[in-house]
Write a structure and sequence with these properties.
Chains A, B, C, D: GO terms for molecular function: 4-hydroxy-tetrahydrodipicolinate synthase activity; 5-dehydro-4-deoxyglucarate dehydratase activity; N-acetylneuraminate lyase activity. Four copies of one chain form a homotetramer. By secondary structure, chain A is of the alpha/beta class. Chain A is built from twelve helices and eight strands. The interface between A and B is large, with 44 and 44 residues.
Chain lengths: 309, 309, 309, 309
Amino acid sequence: MTLPPGRLTGVIPPVCTPLTPAGAVDTRSLTRLVDHLAGAGVDGLFVLGSSSEAAYLTDHQRRLVVETVTRHVAGALPVLAGAIDMTTPRVLAHAETALAAGADAVVATAPFYARTHPVEIARHFQLIAKHTGAPLLAYDLPSSVHSKLEADLVLGLAADGTLAGLKDSSGDQATLRSVAIGAPDGFSVLTGSELLVDTALQFGAHGVVPGLGNVDPHGYVRIVRHAAAGEWDLARAEQERLLALFAVVDAAPPERMGRGSAAIGAFKAALRLLGVIDHATTAEPQVPLSADEEARVAELLRAAGLHPA
Amino acid sequence: MTLPPGRLTGVIPPVCTPLTPAGAVDTRSLTRLVDHLAGAGVDGLFVLGSSSEAAYLTDHQRRLVVETVTRHVAGALPVLAGAIDMTTPRVLAHAETALAAGADAVVATAPFYARTHPVEIARHFQLIAKHTGAPLLAYDLPSSVHSKLEADLVLGLAADGTLAGLKDSSGDQATLRSVAIGAPDGFSVLTGSELLVDTALQFGAHGVVPGLGNVDPHGYVRIVRHAAAGEWDLARAEQERLLALFAVVDAAPPERMGRGSAAIGAFKAALRLLGVIDHATTAEPQVPLSADEEARVAELLRAAGLHPA
Amino acid sequence: MTLPPGRLTGVIPPVCTPLTPAGAVDTRSLTRLVDHLAGAGVDGLFVLGSSSEAAYLTDHQRRLVVETVTRHVAGALPVLAGAIDMTTPRVLAHAETALAAGADAVVATAPFYARTHPVEIARHFQLIAKHTGAPLLAYDLPSSVHSKLEADLVLGLAADGTLAGLKDSSGDQATLRSVAIGAPDGFSVLTGSELLVDTALQFGAHGVVPGLGNVDPHGYVRIVRHAAAGEWDLARAEQERLLALFAVVDAAPPERMGRGSAAIGAFKAALRLLGVIDHATTAEPQVPLSADEEARVAELLRAAGLHPA
Amino acid sequence: MTLPPGRLTGVIPPVCTPLTPAGAVDTRSLTRLVDHLAGAGVDGLFVLGSSSEAAYLTDHQRRLVVETVTRHVAGALPVLAGAIDMTTPRVLAHAETALAAGADAVVATAPFYARTHPVEIARHFQLIAKHTGAPLLAYDLPSSVHSKLEADLVLGLAADGTLAGLKDSSGDQATLRSVAIGAPDGFSVLTGSELLVDTALQFGAHGVVPGLGNVDPHGYVRIVRHAAAGEWDLARAEQERLLALFAVVDAAPPERMGRGSAAIGAFKAALRLLGVIDHATTAEPQVPLSADEEARVAELLRAAGLHPA
């Protein structure tokens, strides 16, 4: 499929990438995860994002993920693909592969590793848009790329047709709100926050890309529906249930592993406990969760009304 | 060739990657640059580092660079190759390609983009060393990867045989000195500083990897020779001449472009002015130097006693 | 007065400190500003915060500000006073002076300048609370003090009675929401955001401390009233009007001055244009706004429906 | 005394501030510490710096420290005094008090807490120099004030007569070297590093302000003398002995306390063990060293050839 007419809206989870114990992409678990999400009523899928461990996947694995998901959904849902790499030439290579493998849109960050500049960030997105000819979303992720996409830059690239949307994982709600207010028709403003979805929808965001949405997609679908109906108290109650569940990302303490490993490890442990994927394996060199830490994940799932095995 | 017995010492420039105006690797200019460096008496070559624009080169271009250089030097100098990527699986892929293309050793940073942890950094280097079986140098570059390799971590990985050396571009001379004092036999401590080579050699570093060494390799070779002879005043005078030349990296002001673009653009402009390479082109999305900025580079070359066209 | 029973709620502006052209505290303008705020129906006043230029005021000026404001309001509104300094002994000295001058509560940040630690941050607040015996609010301001008050730390100090509230200017809405959900009875959760007041109230914050509230207190009072009535669409419309007005802080560009100077300079220019204070002078070494920049402030005031002279 | 003719050179330790168990300034221990330093042949004293816990001392304590030291040395050594505060008006108040109490020169950082700008930093130093009329040294301490004094800014303020010197604790040796090369006659370039004193002197720094110099002033005096004699190998050996001793700052681990507390606590523990001061007390809210951590300090003192009780 191509992107839907109008803008992307609703719940578009960043799809985890299940791995076998040997570190290969577990395509059977991946398609089960896609079914789990689609069955909950999500509006699209985002593969090869940070929650997908895109930073850890080889080029071969990245292509396999896109192919597996696009074939499986067969046009029933739009599939956005991350093209996560340091600079324009390398991002272009990933973008072309993903589009050839069936992705409907590309998601790219500002350049990283290289010390960059706003002029270079703008040029980066313009070149990607021009060379791929596909819809392009900017991915604002300062904790990974160490530069912030400012509202003026995003809105300028929206106005000139470079960007089709913004996936904001910066935590900076004030800037996100400014972009939402200034966004032209057709431009999608998506928040990557797990914890502020109701409020982001209230101030004008169009959709959500929550990592925790792998584990509990129904919850995020409900928030979006409550928000659409103006039922803000119900949206808030659902968000607060999910906020409590989000404590899974702290099941492993910061002394033991990086915060990325703790979050992705917890999402995968939860998916395994819920029977969606076969293994909670994360890619090297991430530290895996211990049995005690997985038990804490199970406890939080139960407290949120989910039913781990 | 394989690495020399004992440790790497002396001047090992991070070799710039000349590009054609269309952005392809200019292999003829690259071999001329290698001749320029070898002719000045350098002790090794480091390809695919930050000054080589490794972050901007596609996988194909990276392999072409290693092949071109290793074939050209044909064992006359050790060739170290950067394997610059975000995490272990991706670094391994680059390392294997570089070694297959003839590199003698691999240089890798801590994981980046992903939020990491000292335990994961150690595991990252251990897995790379184990899987490649080749000499591995750690590349400490906090300005790019946003974590610092602490002395204890480096010395632990030196002691257990994981690391063959450290390429330090952190600017933290105190930590570098601690590593130099604690380094076991055979472990190479290399500074990436352009401006503190004499003092780093004085406190025990074994070699230098200066980006400016592309432009004036003779100068750095002289510092190493003066230092070996205990002629610290001569080493200092040579270092001060090169410090003045290093102002080329500020020929383009910070309002105009990123500091990486300014530095690499200046090195390439200097190499073109000196007749070593054909084009000063830098990779996208970097902003190129203006004619005025190139004129400033030429002026600084002349002031340093070099002879631009 | 002492603090009201229950918790602090509503609009509690951080009161600007008008200065004479010679840099003295302009007490006549200060009392007019207090009248301007009280007349709009605010629920309290916060003096000696960052928007008050507390960092720039001498000890004598700080005491004069507290005395001037507490005498003028004479118990009609609670007055919170910042005790902004680097460490416990120095904060205690400021807190004691402010309380002696009539303040009802103390607001303090984590230690700064000194490199600190969560255990030391907790001990800092515990010692202040114990020694002053007055209500203490923690001021979370990572952009100034370079450490973040995490939800667990704040909630622990709420539970043991150390803290009476949190004034959050971190921009981290997710942490603020966690604190709001976990806050015990009587604990006040106040957001320092100018742009996310409606959403902060929606997820459970109790009040707001907006610097822009100096300029347009009526607007913030309206948001709080709409929120209390569940009129979220009206609250949003009012917030969007104020978001547009907030562009005054960018009237002076980042090349010309620090962002603090630009914001405080703009608030003071606006207050002068509105006839509330006599001079827009800011303290040294801040760069003042130019005439053109003040004209831009006037333009934005008019666009927001206010009436500059 | 006033400052010596010419520039400040040699060893100028940042004098620790001994405290009684109740937290008062222990003036008897302070004068014994001054005798310990003067007896070792230091060239000046720096009071109220970071190692002096200036950030923790009340205004009264700060004045008492300056008075105690200036009366005790009675002109035998120049006394520099830190005027550590957030902005110009507050720094001026401290500077005037210190000068009235007998200090010979003032040491000030860039503004902090407030978000600042190079233009404002320059104006800050210019106003301090103008209003005090005393010699002013800039204190570059990015780890505390979160901005870096760039070489151009320092050299510009040296050239216009604003600054009499630089006390560099940034760890950035390359910038320090640039300042040393560009410094006009009479301008003092002092390094705050404990670990790179020989190399800083080699590249042109004029003096050193080492916190560890409280504990082992003889060692730093020897480095300076070896350097003056061109005996670089002896200077290096002495520096390496002190580098090993500097491990006292890691006697307390980072999980237990801030790194500032660990360093100052270790210096004070060492001074108590050596019989120079009566108590190792540090100011609130710093965590004190445990008995085991003090034992580790004693062990390192013995290994360095010192003789703890």
